[in-house]
């Protein structure tokens, strides 16, 4: 038996044929959805609207149901657009955007202003063209819609049981674009070694954005035993956070404004120091001039977004001077402290040393 190999052209033709059939079925569905809205069957089955019945029972998104209603209600007013879809010149996605634009613009809508654009642009690009058309017809109405989106803005901050901050919210298009514009440059990969996902880079970027490139003002409460890293010592406390590890406290104290609150074993306050910038503004300026950017090999995060890291931490007797300081971006600063990497200077360059990895002990001889 000879097997017939399907060519790329044949697959492409089949894709076009199927997509055309889907568009025709979508149009038929839109007609039926509009007719169904005129019945009371959805009410008979206990739904508030025909929209809800279709969304739930037809397993559709709200956006797709609204598209169906828009096309079904405006089909008679869009004869040339419907014919263009029949001819394969546009898809149902174009048709639904035209119909929704007709609903939003009202009596001044002109189908022939949009159909040539639909033929020439992808559905996504065509959607933006329709927004420009809406603004040209009714700038005041377009502005009201934008303000309505602005009024829907929200940001919710919830702390999970493990201390993680859960962020959810909605920004209007202008606010969203502003945040994206600020986050994009902070979310670029920091070299070939950067294996973070885009979502992780965005998360790191928003933390960096919140700090504004400046050391954070924090108050840390800890016992003397915690700072010394003694076995059995409790974790440190910080506002808006669950207990934090000693390694995290040391990283923050490298280049943060720290107000220390030291407790003895009986939780009595034995020392409460004033907020003190560990790396002074003068020293930071000199550090920026000398290093210019993060000194981790392959990373070029600008100096304004970096921390001043003590090669030998001041809590361990290291001095706060230029010879003992190096610029590190927040990601690499965390790798040194929480990730237990080490940094050493060799011939004037910073060399990272990976943490030791134990692969287990050799098996003892059978006795």
Order of helices and strands: HHHHHHHHHEEHHEHEHEEEHEEHEE
| Helical residue percent band | 40-55%
Number of strands: 11
| Secondary structural class | alpha+beta
Outline: elongated
Beta-strand share of residues:
5-15%
Estimate the mean pLDDT confidence.
83
Number of helices: 15
What's the number of structural domains?
A: 4
The gyration radius over C-alpha positions equals: 31 Å
Largest sheet: 5 strands, mixed
SSE order and pairing:
Elements: H1 8-37, H2 41-44, H3 50-57, H4 62-74, H5 79-86, H6 92-105, H7 111-120, H8 123-137, H9 139-151, E1 154-159, E2 165-170, H10 173-186, H11 198-211, E3 217-223, H12 224-228, E4 237-238, H13 246-255, E5 257-263, E6 269-272, E7 276-277, H14 281-291, E8 306-310, E9 325-329, H15 330-337, E10 342-346, E11 349-353
Parallel strand pairs: 3-5
Antiparallel strand pairs: 1-2, 3-4, 5-6, 5-7, 8-9, 10-11
Helix pairs in contact: 1-4, 4-6, 6-7, 6-8, 7-8, 8-9, 10-11, 13-15
3D architecture notes:
By secondary structure, the chain is an alpha+beta fold. The chain has four domains: 8-149, no CATH class; 155-210, no CATH class; 216-278, no CATH class; 280-357, Orthogonal Bundle (DNA Binding (I), subunit A). It is 48% helix and 15% strand. The chain has helices spanning 8-37, 41-44, 50-57, 62-74, 79-86, 92-105, 111-120, 123-137, 139-151, 173-186, 198-211, 224-228, 246-255, 281-291, 330-337, and strands spanning 154-159, 165-170, 217-223, 237-238, 257-263, 269-272, 276-277, 306-310, 325-329, 342-346, 349-353. The strands form four sheets. Strands 3, 4, 5, 6 and 7 form a five-stranded mixed beta sheet that branches. A two-stranded antiparallel ribbon has the order 1-2. Strands 8-9 form a two-stranded antiparallel sheet. α10 packs across α11. The protein is elongated and about 80 Å long. The protein starts with 7 loop residues before the first helix and ends in a 14-residue tail after the last strand. 21% of the residues are buried. The mean pLDDT is 83.
């Amino acid at each position: 038996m000879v097997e017939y190999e399907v060519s790329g052209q044949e697959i492409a033709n089949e894709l076009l044929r199927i997509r055309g059939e889907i568009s025709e079925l979508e149009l038929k569905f839109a007609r039926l959805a509009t007719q169904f809205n005129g019945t009371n069957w959805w009410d008979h089955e206990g739904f508030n609207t025909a929209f809800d019945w279709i969304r739930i029972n037809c397993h559709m998104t709200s956006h797709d149901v609204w598209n169906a209603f828009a096309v079904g209600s405006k089909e008679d007013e869009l004869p040339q657009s419907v014919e263009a879809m029949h001819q394969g010149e546009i898809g149902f996605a174009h048709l639904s955007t035209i119909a929704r634009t007709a609903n939003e613009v009202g009596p001044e809508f002109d189908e022939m202003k949009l159909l040539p654009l639909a033929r020439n642009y992808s559905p996504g690009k065509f959607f933006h063209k329709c927004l420009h058309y809406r603004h040209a017809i009714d700038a005041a109405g377009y502005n009201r819609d934008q303000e309505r989106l602005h009024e829907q803005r929200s940001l919710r901050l919830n702390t999970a049981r493990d201390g993680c901050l859960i962020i959810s919210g909605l920004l209007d298009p202008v606010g969203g674009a502003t945040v994206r514009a600020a986050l994009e440059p902070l979310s670029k990969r920091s070299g070939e070694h950067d294996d973070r996902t885009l979502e992780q880079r965005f998360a790191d970027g928003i933390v960096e954005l919140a700090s504004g490139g400046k050391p954070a003002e924090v108050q840390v409460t800890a016992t003397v035993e915690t700072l010394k890293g003694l076995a059995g010592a409790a974790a440190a406390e910080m506002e808006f956070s669950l207990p934090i590890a000693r390694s995290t406290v040391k990283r923050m104290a490298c280049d943060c404004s720290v107000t220390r609150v030291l407790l003895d074993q009986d939780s009595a306050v034995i020392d409460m120091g004033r907020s003190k910038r560990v790396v002074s503004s003068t020293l930071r300026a000199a550090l920026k001039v000398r290093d210019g950017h993060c000194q981790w090999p392959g990373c070029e995060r600008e100096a304004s977004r970096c921390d001043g890291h003590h090669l030998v931490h001041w809590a361990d007797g290291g001095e706060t001077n230029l010879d003992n300081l190096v610029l590190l971006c927040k990601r690499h600063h965390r790798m040194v402290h929480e990730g237990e990497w080490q940094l050493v200077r060799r011939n004037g360059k910073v060399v990272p040393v990976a943490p030791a990895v134990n692969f287990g002990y050799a098996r003892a001889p059978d006795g």
